[in-house]
Amino acid sequence: MTGSLQIIATLVAAQIVIAMAPGPNTVLVVHASAHDRRLGLAVAAGILPAGILWAIGGLAGLGTVLTALPEIAEARRIACGLYLVWLGVKAVRRSFVEPVGVAVAGADAMTIGEAFRAGAFSTLTNPKAIAYYLSIFTATGAFALSPVEQALAVVLMPTVSSLWYALLAAVVASGPVAGVLDRGRSWFDRLAGLTMIGFGAKLLASRS
Q1: Rounded distance, CA 208 to CA 204, Å?
Q2: Quick one: pLDDT band at residue 207, thresholds 50, 70, 90?
Q3: Residue 143: how many CB atoms within 10 A of its CB?
Q4: Integer Cα distance of 146 and 2 in angstroms
Q5: Burial tier of 104 (Cβ tally within 10 Å: 0-12, 13-18, 19+)
Q6: What angle do CA 169, 11, 163 make, to 5 degrees?
Q7: Residue pair 154/11 in contact by the 8 Å Cβ criterion
Q8: Cβ distance 84 to 122 under 8 Å?
Q9: pTM of the model
Q10: Which of 40, 85, 182, 187 is most buried, judged by most C-beta within 10 A?
């Protein structure tokens, strides 16, 4: 294996590990998929373009710029925290009005567009995203790759994450899993909502 292929393989392997680690995106995908597989896939699709933007920023050295402008990182942290709290509150509210196995058509019901935006916004405002991409590119020597190889890495890494979340959505929405979730839908929504609120509160309480 050439040096370039080894670097790209390392980047992909690291991306798989990061994607599989539980976090806000995981909760968003699982919660959306429990209601409709298409919603979970929409969240996964929204994560892709946001990840590509952060990967480009990482290779372009955006992390250095953000370090010099801490107020931007602070604004992203607050925005992400508030957004997760808002989504969590909506999920908890829905759990008290949605009959088992029946989707609510009211204001709290999530649409495909909202699911896509949730995945994109959660990824774009994640305060750890740019730091991850900058550090992983530095640690693996990705800055030494050719422009074509860097472009491949920029597209491949977020695609790996998006595919993992799409697979997760398919599993959660599959017959056996969906059947279990349907029987405890209200409690699952409350747990997912409280988890999102917890992630958001942790971000709001932290300091960059």
Answers
A1: 10
A2: low
A3: 12
A4: 13
A5: middle
A6: 15
A7: no
A8: yes
A9: 0.80
A10: 40
